[in-house]
Each structure stands twice: as C-alpha cells, then as structure tokens.
Amino acid sequence: MANIVLTILHLISTTVGGLFRHDSTTGAASVEFWVAAATTLLLIKFAVDSIGPRFSSQKYINPAVQLLRILNHYAVSYTLGLMPPSSSHQGTVANAFFKVWAVLIVTMQDSIRIGRPYQPKEMTLVDMLTSLWSANQLRAKTAIHLRVPLWLMWSIHASRIVWYYITSSAAARARDDDMKLVSDYMAMPTQHTSNDANPATMAGYKYIVLGEEKLKQQIKVEPPSFTQTQLAQEEVITVEKVWSQGSSDALLGEAGDSSNRFKDVCLSFALYKLLRRRFFNFPIHEASHAGTRQLVVDAILDDKKGYERAFRVTEVELSFLQDFFYSKHADVFASGFPCVRLLLSLLMTAAASYLAYAVHDMPSVSTGLTAKGRLARISHGVFVTHCIIAILVIRELWEIIVHVFSQWTNVLIICSYIRLRGRQGCWIQGLRLWMMEKVARIMFWLIGRGRSRRDRNIRQCNLVMSARTGSIARVTRVIFR
C-alpha cells in the first residue's frame, strides 16, 4: 500500500514538474502547461456555472464570474496560438498531440456552455473562428488512427453549435408565445375552471399541463364584443384530463397511483406555468375564482398524510421554476424530449472514448525541432490527453443524466401516455402503453431515490435585518447551510 501511494505521489510530482518546465519555443511554460491551465479554467467555469444561482445575488461574485469567462476565452485562444510556432516540420509526435489538444479544448470550451443559460448573442463570431482555427490544425498530415476521431469530434462539435443556436432561438420565441397563450387561456374563466369544479376528482379544472401551443389557432377574438373564444382542444393536456383516466388504468388509476404521485407532477407543472406569469407581469385571472381556493384548501392541503402532499406539490413546482430561470431545461424541452441533443452528446462521448484508445500507445515523451531551430518538448502527453478526455466524457454524460432523469421528462412521459391511451389502435399500442407505464415507474423511482433530504428542509431568514448588518456571508450561510 505504501509503495502504491509513493508511486502515485511520484507520478504527480513528475507531471507537475514537467508542466512547469521552461520551454524555449514559448519563452515561458510549455504548450502542455497551457493546455492543462486552459482545461482547469474551463472546469472551474463549469463548476461555477453549475452552482451559479446561489451566487447570482452576491455583490462580488458576478464580477469574478465575468472575469473567469474572459480568462477562459483568452486562455484557449492563447494556447491555440502557441501550437503552430511550437510544431515541427518533421511531423513528430508532438505535432499529433497539438492537434488532439486543439480539438479537445475547443470542444470543451463550447461543451461546458451548452447546458447553461446563454443567449444566442454569446455564440459570437470569435467562437466560430476559434473552432475553425482548431480545424486548421487538422489540415496538416495526421495519422489515420487520429484523423478519423478528431474530424468526427470536430464535425459533431460544429453541428452542435449550429443546432443549439437554431433551437435556442426558436425555443426562446416559443417560450414567450406559450406564456402569452396561457395568460389568454386563463382570462376565460369558463374555460379554465368550471363553476361546479370538484377538487377531489379535479373535474372542471382545465389548467394547462402541456400543449398550449395547440391553442394558437384555436383562441380567436371575434366582433362585435371582441371577446376571446376557444375551440375544442384534443391534444391539450389539462389537469382535468390527467385525473379523468379510468380508475382501472395501470398507471394513473386508483390502484396504480393511489397516492397521486404521478398525477401530482402534472399538477405541479400546471401550477408552475401559472406562477411563472407573476415574474413577467401577466395578470392572474384565476385568483378571484372560487374554484382556485377550493383546489388549494380541499385538495392540496386536505391530505390524509398531513403536510406531505402540499410540500411535494410545492417542491416540484418550485423546481420547475428554478429550472426555468437558472438552467436550460425550459428551452431544451420546449419542443418535446431532446432526442437530437442527447444523441449528439452520445456521439461525442463515443468519439472521445475512441480517441482515448487511439492515443494510448503513443509515446508520452516527445521532442521536436521547430522552424526557428528551437526544441519543443512534451513530457506527459498521454496522461494530459486522457485527463482532458475524461473531463469531457464526464461532462457529456452529466448533460445526459441531468436531462433524462428530470421532472420534465416525467411530465412528457405521462402526457404521452395519456395521448396514446386516448387513441384507438392494435396490440402494438397496448404494448407501447405497457412499456411507457414501466418506464414511468422506473423514472419516478430513480428521481425519488436521487433526491436529497436537504431539499425537504425549510428555513427562514429576514433579508432586511441581515442586510443591515452588512454581512452577505451570514445571509448565505443561513439560506444555504
């Protein structure tokens, strides 16, 4: 055991020493060091972005985050700029590592930003030029076992930039339109809540869960009174429709969902869409309706297990709202399940894994003579490459896990189940219903297992009194401890 620890410490010390060795081609640290530094900065940026909502209100954190983004951009650009002068015209192993690192750090630069909130304007011309700059490195002569995975990774990377740019712009427009449609829909009291609504069975509660985009051609303003009228909707999933499934239904019936766990996720999603309007100054039309109070008092709060259902519905509702403001879930799921996005992540993971295999038998130590007669040296090429690939693969897998195992996926599964159940079909439809039921139960079990007990704690803090003390750190400790 002691020998293993000593071996690991020796490997770390020699790696760090090799990275900080002076390089005559750059006049300072080697290209290998700058690749490791750029990767570290990108990893720190991803970590800060992942917990960004907790720091967004702090006075001194936001400038630090902006500075970190600037450092990331210049670190990647500077590292790419060092590679051509440090390359050898003799086609050494160092040149091959430079090509691999150029593609990896550029891919990682955009990969860490894909899952976070960003506006289309952030996909600037400079970022596209950086991507083309890395492609220029691949134009030189490269071994076939490296050329295939590198060009494959760059192609996936370029396709993903274009795809995300288009879908993000379209999703942002659709998000605003859907919010306005929900507001217009709720402005018609006879549509969203019946006068004889029953909170026990949710009959009469037509709060939209999914499919408000179907109302775009159905809501009309007709003269002479110019009041809004709505045609019948079939593809729109409402709270009433979720609860109206037969009692014998395997997934949403009394036997299959006696505690309303599956149906309550749809209720939380509908309430999230109503709550979201407050942040955009849309009127809350249903606030004065008697059925709204009955829903809260006689359904959500009136539970045999006490507080459990009220807190469960509120917890999921606020999780949707948090995802809307501090993640890309609302944009990612705007057009349904993100199959293309996850497919690109899987392809990137496969290409990166193949690249890790392709470089494993390359010599880690390499030297090359540049055009100016200087000696370029690489001391731990394979180790550094494998570390970058591991970070990239973990990041891609994290992207898949975050989106697949989310409450947004649960809502889509249940709504798809309801739509499929309402159609007449052959035995294949029955098989699909059975499979969707099993998938829904597995997903709910996995998401429920992954939830922390800390999420069920509620704490209070007087922000006014805490701010008077001038201690921002104290407020943070109270809220997030």
TrEMBL record:
The keyword Signal applies. Pfam families: DUF4220. InterPro entries: DUF4220 (IPR025315). Keywords: Signal. It comes from the Eukaryota. Residues 70-464 form the DUF4220 domain. Residues 1-17 form the signal peptide. PANTHER family: OS01G0798800 PROTEIN-RELATED. This is DUF4220 domain-containing protein. It comes from Oryza sativa subsp. japonica. The lineage of its organism: Eukaryota, Viridiplantae, Streptophyta, Embryophyta, Tracheophyta.
